[in-house]
Amino acid sequence: MADDLSAVARFLYEAGTLKNTARTGWWMAGVKQPESVAEHSWRTSLIASIIAKLEGADPARAAFLAVWHDTQETRTGDVNHLGKRYSPSADPAAVTADQTAGMPELLASTLQELVAEYEGKDSAEAVCARDADKLECMLQGLEYKAQGYAGAQRWIDNSRARLTTETGRRLAEELLGQGPLDWLRAALGEKG
To answer: What letter does residue 163 receive in the DSSP assignment?
Structure first.
């Protein structure tokens, strides 16, 4: 390949910092060691592919959008909703443009367009990915609540209220009707 991949290599190291970037809103719910942005993005991508498939959208595209939706947080950190009241949030498109500077143009433009599509809710896949982001937050809240963090209920309720797709809302109802270990009981053939 003739294109210089040094900027891509730098970004891959940069992206690794998301494994150590905590989702800070959970601290307000009392969670001492909340999930990382990378963990959130991974499950969001899975959920996005599921929602998209069931909504008749492209699941691969939705997952692609979801995996990139918080990559800007390598440079901005995870600013929770309260923090955003006091600090203007960085423009995801501008951060992505900086992150992709020096990358092969085909890659840089693809990633910049991807982030713009997600932020603009410009496609069915973007809507599915955004719902996946909310549903993953709700699901994480349910898991934290089961661990004894009663304050997580606020995130559960707020995330659920922001769902827009029929599949997202139906999945939320299913999740609310189950516990975090019901999957294990079912896999072992145990009765509920």
So the answer is: -
Q: Is the predicted pLDDT of residue 192 greater than 80, yes or no?
A: no
CA dist 125 and 58 (Å) reads: 6
Q: Tens of pLDDT along 77-87?
A: 888 878 878 88
CA dist., res. 125 & res. 190, Å (int): 37
| Pick from 86, 67, 166, 75: nearest CA to 59 | 67
Contact assessment for residue 132 and residue 150, using Cβ atoms and an 8 Å cutoff: no
Q: Confidence band (pLDDT; 50, 70, 90) for 1?
A: very low
Taking phi over 0 as left and psi of -120 to 50 as alpha, with beta for the rest, 4 belongs to beta
Residue type, 37: V
Output the CA torsion sign for 192, 46, 6, 19. negative
DSSP string of 35-52, one letter each residue:
PBHHHHHHHHHHHHHHHH
From CA 23, how far away is CA 36, in angstroms rounded? 6
Write down the mean pLDDT value for the chain: 94
Q: Pick from 40, 42, 59: which is nearest to 50 by CA?
A: 59
Bridge partners (DSSP) of residue 105 are none
